[in-house]
TrEMBL record:
Gene3D superfamilies: NAD(P)-binding Rossmann-like Domain. It comes from Sphingomonas psychrotolerans. This is NAD(P)-binding domain-containing protein. GO terms for cellular component: cytoplasm. GO terms for molecular function: aldehyde dehydrogenase (NAD+) activity.
Length: 310
């Protein structure tokens, strides 16, 4: 029997890739979007509305068996007020339809100085504003009384990435001349290729009967143990041995008062100074494997979509 899912944030990175993966797995997919336009994916049934409008979310969710909450306020603006309101609307819509509510999670719930290997039940001690908001989002799901799914992953990258380190500074669009790497030398970092994350969500949502009421999994993705693997894969994908420059962290506070993205980047510095690796054993136990595109192949597809050439 065909199932129906509503994806909030279906024009973004995680939401868009999850919507496409669900379509491949035979789901009917709806997407809530603030304004309809001809460039939207024609395979998705688009419904005009705002994730902050509870009535619009309820209308869009009528009869669905899953809701993917992958929507965030644009440009990091209004997170403390808008993020809880958006999530409350999704929780209400999921409960009204007895639907599984799926949420993309992050490593920001963890203290990077204290948690080198994060398991699904590791203590959450966020040290950033964004991490505290993420922890509260998960807590809201846990106390909602409904069926929920959280999939935590490392830093996203992909053909349609939204906000990501790779697309917003590590390699400039156009002809690449250098790699700007934010991490400290020898420090590991977790990367998550968005099409693989979307495929993982689709496979999990297809195993409804085998998941706990409050299901939590970790997506290991590509683990770069010392900061060199990802850089080498970038060079391989672009066919050039580009020089590597360090992130000028000292300069970011000068820009931060005028740029919300810079303020967020400063908060994330600790995750580039300490490694946080995600333990995916529960995910592999359920699915048999974690969807995994080879790193160089994933970067070739990413750079082609972003217009980055060697």
């Amino acid at each position: 029997m065909t199932k129906t899912a509503l994806v909030l944030g279906a024009t973004g990175g995680v939401g868009g890739e999850t919507a496409r993966a669900l379509l491949r797995h035979g789901w009917d997919v709806r997407g809530l979007v603030r304004s309809l336009r001809p460039t939207l994916d024609p395979d998705i049934r688009w419904i005009e509305g705002d994730a902050l409008d509870s009535a619009a979310v309820l209308r869009a969710a009528e009869g669905v068996s899953a809701i993917v909450h992958a929507v965030n306020p644009p440009g990091y603006r209004g997170w403390p007020e808008q993020v809880p309101a958006m999530l409350a609307n999704s929780i209400a819509a999921a409960r009204a339809n007895d639907a599984r509510l799926a949420l993309p999670g992050t490593i920001y719930n963890y203290d990077p100085a204290a948690t080198q290997l994060a398991r699904v039940d590791s203590p959450q001690q966020p040290r950033t504003r964004k991490g505290r908001i993420r922890m509260e989002m998960e807590r809201s799901l846990a106390t909602s009384g409904g069926r929920t799914l959280i999939l935590r992953a490392g830093d996203f990258y992909g053909p349609r990435p939204g906000n990501s380190w790779l697309s917003q500074g590590m390699v400039k669009p156009g002809t690449a001349r250098a790699i700007l790497y934010p991490g400290a030398k020898g420090v590991g970092h977790a990367w998550a290729y968005l099409p693989d994350v979307g495929e993982t969500f689709a496979r999990l949502l297809g195993r409804e009967r085998e998941m706990a009421q409050s299901a939590r999994y970790h997506f290991a993705g590509h683990w770069d143990a010392d900061g060199t693997r990802f850089v080498d894969a970038i060079r391989e994908a672009l066919g050039r041995r580009l020089p590597v420059r360090g992130m000028p962290w000292w300069a970011l506070p000068l820009i931060a008062p005028f740029n919300p993205t810079m303020r967020e980047m400063i908060e994330m510095r600790a995750y580039w100074r300490h490694p946080v690796q995600l333990d995916n054993r529960d995910l592999v136990e359920l699915l048999g494997e974690e969807p995994h595109t080879p790193l160089p192949e994933s970067l070739v597809a990413t750079f082609a979509a972003l217009g980055i050439a060697a």
